[in-house]
Amino acid sequence: MATPEFAIVGRIRKAHGIRGEVVVEPITDAPDATFAPGRRVFAGTTDGDPARDGAELTVKEAKPFKGGLIISFDAIADRTAAELWRDRYLLLPLNELEPPGAGEVYIHDLVGMHVVLVTGEALGDVQEVYELPQGIVLDVRRTGGGTVMLPFSDRIVKLVSRETRTVHVDPPTGMLD
Q1: What phi and psi values does residue 72 have, to the nearest 5 degrees?
Q2: d(Cα 88, Cα 4) in Å, to the nearest integer?
Q3: Looking at residue 8, what is its pLDDT?
Q4: How far is CA 17 from CA 43, 56, 67, 83, in A?
């Protein structure tokens, strides 16, 4: 699996007002730094790949708004232009992001990791990661066939190792049945 060059840091929800502002859902632990005035971001896809048009935006202003941000970008001048950006993803090059700390991992790094029960028994491999309103969910292809969906929560995920590319889990009784 190729290592991505970009990480998804936000999604434009909708246009806001008449001056080209947009409502952005941050998908980052550091939205203030990621969307600081003067910072550039790139249009992209849900896979974290840059869009074919190579669109680059520079943040002019960002302010908090209902669990997200209202952002004014240099290349979006009015509401008509802002409407064209609805549901587009915003990316940053990985080399511009602070590396994950101890015990942390980028969401895209989870795909392909081996999932192991805390007892040491192999469960399978992460095939996909879903970001749902309830939180992150791992789609695990089981070693013996079939799949299981595991919430990525402290209650179930006990350890993630970037070095060994393993996720150690302790699901409640019955979850794997």
Answers
A1: -105, 120
A2: 18
A3: 85
A4: 21, 22, 18, 10
Question: Which residues lie closer than 8 Å to 113 by C-beta, 6 or more apart?
Answer: 125, 126, 160, 165, 166, 167
Whether residue 140 is found in the same domain as residue 66: no
Question: Cα–Cα distance between 116 and 128 in angstroms, integer?
Answer: 16
Block residue for tokens 């970001």: 131
One-letter amino acid of 121 = E
- The number of residues in the chain equals 177
Contact of 62 with 87, CB cutoff 8 Å: no
Q: Which of 56, 52, 64, 60 is nearest to 25 (CA)?
A: 64
pTM for this one?
Answer: 0.68
State which of 40, 71, 96 marks the end of a domain. Answer: 96
Could you list the residue range(s) of the whole structural domain that residue 78 is in?
6-96
**Contacts for 141 with CB less than 8 Å, ≥ 6 apart:** 124, 125, 127, 147
Q: Which helix (H) or strand (E) holds 81?
A: helix 79-83
Q: Quick check: helix, strand or coil at residue 96? A: helix
**What residue type is assigned to position 17 of the chain?**
G
Per-residue pLDDT tens for 42-61?
988 766 667 666 689 999 99
Alpha helices in 40-175 (DSSP H): 79-83, 107-110
